Description:
Elements lengths: L1 E6 L6 H12 L7 E7 L5 E8 L30 E7 L2 E7 L8 E6 L5 H15 L6 E5 L2 E7 L4 E7 L7 E5 L1 H7 L4 H54 L1 H23 L3 H9 L6 E9 L3 E8 L3 H11 L4 E12 L2 E10 L11
Parallel strand pairs: 4-7
Antiparallel strand pairs: 1-3, 2-3, 4-5, 5-6, 8-9, 9-10, 11-12, 12-14, 13-14
Amino acid sequence: MYxxxxxxxxAADVAEQVALNLEAHAPFSLEQLCHGWILAPSDTxxxxxxTHRRLFPVGDWSEAKAVLPAFLPLLGxxxxxxxxxxxxxxxxxxxxxxxxxxxxxACVLARRCGDREHxxxxxxxxxxxxxxLGGSLPAVEEQTGHxxxxxxxxxxxxxxxxxxxxxxxxxxxRLSGPQLEAADLRDKTVLLAQRRRVRRDGWLWRGAAAAAAAxxxxxxxxxxxxxxxxxxxxxxxxxxxxxxxVREIEAAHALGNRIEELAGxxxxxxxxxxxxxxxxxxxxxxxxxxxxxxxxLEIEAxxxxxxxxxxxxxxxxxxxxxxxxxxxxxxxxxxxxTFQLQAVFRENFWATGGRP
Length: 356
């Protein structure tokens, strides 16, 4: 497997820089490789990983969250200084070497070996690591334990580490969701199509869920409308049952209003005449009186003093109960003045208790 640490320009596209490096240094063309990368937190370097497509495990990986190299648990925990880590698993000896102040290893090597070849393979790997680190070999750490991969809740990422036998904790390499996608060794075109399919399926699922929710809401709304319709029909039936009682109440109310109106509009000739007599001078006599409608009083009168007729008219106009006063057909004969008096009273005078 091809593993190489390369510098990265943070301002340029990482995928393009990885592809250019593979084209320049990998033993096979980019079309023949399955590759991925791990970007350092500083965004200034990346660990590029690639393998030939023929060596890629055969099988259906479409349901896998990610397909990653088996040595990732060895990278858990960044060492404080230069160090070489050795880990043997299932007959494969894996080496990872760090130089001073770097977050990613300078090289990652792996060789398959049996029990008799272990010492020779170990010596060979250490020699290659020394060359990669500039000729000096730092301290060697023998790693033991079994690899553990665990998901990080709510981030879409995973943690990789070696947990020694009998221990519950270890050093972990954490990769976020986007970092997992970048490190995935599967064909990037296939991964993109898969992500689009997953996204499409997600939208279809959300659409189906929304449609189901809309159907449920429609059923609930229909039930609510039916219930409301039943209540309205019940209310309408109750109102129809009470319609006769309402009509009787309305008739009684109308009769009361009519009686009250008639009480206020009855003929009041004596009250009218008494009110006119309050301002009638002693020299004027009323000879005949008649009503014209409810509010008009017609009077035939005579006076022994002609001048008293005008004063009587002025006094009548000053009465608040009268709407209008008219004196006509004034005649003088043998010292007696006769005239016709028409007094129109205000309609609401008695309805307001005698107030104007």
